[in-house]
Each structure stands twice: as structure tokens, then as C-alpha cells.
Amino acid sequence: MLLERHRARLYAAALGVLGYGPQAEDAVHDTFLIALRHIGDLKEPQAVVGWLLSVLHRCCLQQLRRRRREVLAAEVPDRPDDGPSIEERLEKVALREWVWNALGKLPESQQVTAVLRYFGSYQSYEELAAILAVPVGTVRSRLSEAKRKLAEMLLATAGGVDSDAASQSRQHHRYYDEVFRNLSRPGEGDRHLGHFAEDLHLVRGGSPVFGRSFLAQEIREDQEAGVLIEPQRIFGAGNISVIEGRFFNPPEDPFHCPPGFAFVIFRRSGRAKRLHIHLSPRSPRIDDD
Description:
Layout: H1 2-5, H2 7-18, H3 22-38, H4 48-68, H5 86-89, H6 96-103, H7 108-119, H8 125-132, H9 136-157, H10 163-181, H11 188-193, E1 196-204, E2 207-210, H12 213-225, E3 228-237, E4 240-248, E5 260-268, E6 271-280
Parallel strand pairs: 1-6
Antiparallel strand pairs: 1-2, 3-4, 4-5, 5-6
């Protein structure tokens, strides 16, 4: 309730710094996430407005730095950690399962957009549009609505977590990690394919095809070429999982696969019904998630 009371004022301040556009909304959203973590550290409750505006100012400067691709060292105020952003740190704090639980309740299209934007390695609107095979404008509108609904659910659930959903999510993460690490071994390809529906909807480069035979062919060709796959980050919510990793090509065919990939898997009744494959000229970020 406290945060919602000051949303309009914070958004107006963000517009004054960043102008109209999604960056102002992102700055307010980041401010809320930081406040959820640190509001208990505030010694003087009457100073909350000034404190929120100070946090917002830092978030706006971070948005400007991203926009300009340079560090505004003279303007960035002192902060305890100038490393990973708040989105990247959410998985490491006590709010982690609370946030993931709320994400899992979003509509699927909003859920996958928010998960990729705030936790993935390929976070620009252009990259998200390529991964999801939708226009950039659709990414922006989905993300805006997802942030609004996520804020409402976080406030409504007040830290409540669906333990069954969290446990199931961890099981999926372990399963995908094991499968992808052993995919080059004999028989593992068949095991992997068994997880996908026969009428799999496969999207790669914006061109959809149907049937898991296309995926089987991709796996077979990579195995025959001697390509190794290393999953580096696995995350997701609800019925969506994202696997990011890198390819290791054989010396005799160094360009068989690009360096990085992101696979987005959509499940129905425990089976993968849709798969988006994004091949990247760079590997995913490496951090201590």
C-alpha cells in the first residue's frame, strides 16, 4: 500500500529524467523491487518519500547508462554493489520463491516475456522479439502489463509461496540440466525427445514448424558433427522453462553452431508443446546465480 501510494509521484519523477517510454516504467519497477528488500532498513519512516526518490534517481541513472552504453561515473551515487542489477540479484535473496511464484501466475505470454526480460541473458526488446517471434511493440505492451500485474500479486500474496509449484519447478530445472549435459551420449537424444509432444510447435528464427521430427533431426546432426552442449543457466516459472548455454564445436568444424543459445520451453500436462530456439553470436552471461 505504501508503494502504491507513491507510484504516481515516482513515475512523474522518472519521466522528468528519462522522458516518456518504457525506461521510466522500468525505473519505477526497479525502485519497487529494491524497496521490497530494504524498506525494513529505513530508520525514520517519515523519510520514506525522500528515500524512495533517492532510489529512483539511482535507477534512472542506471537506465541512462544502459541507454548510452557508458558509465556515468561522476553522476552515479555511492551504492553497496555496482555489479549485477536488482533483477539478477532477486534469485539470491529471501524473496526469490515469492517472486517466482507470482511470475508463475501471470498469463503465459506475459510470464515468458517478464522471465526473459528480468532474468535472461538476452534482455533487449529486439532480442526478446526475436526469441518470441513477435514484434517489438508486442514485447513492450506485454512487459508493461506483466509488471502491473506482478506488482499487484506481490502485494496481495505478502510472501506466500506455493511449495508444490516451487518443488515442481526445481524438478524441471534438474531434469533439463541433466538431459542437456548428457545429450551427446548415445540414447540421451531419444530420452530428450520423449519429453516433447509429437505435434511439437517449434519456432526458430521466427519460422514455425510442427512435429518433433524437426527437433530430432537437429539433435542428430549435432551429435554426428560432434557438437557438445553446456547449459549454463536454467530458470523459469509455472509451465515455462528457459535453458541458456553454449555450444562447443569440434576443431574440424568450428562454425557448425553459433556460440550461444536460448531454448524456451512451454509445457502442457507435463509435456513440452512448444519450443522457441534462439541462436546467439555470444554466450549467455556467466554469474553466480
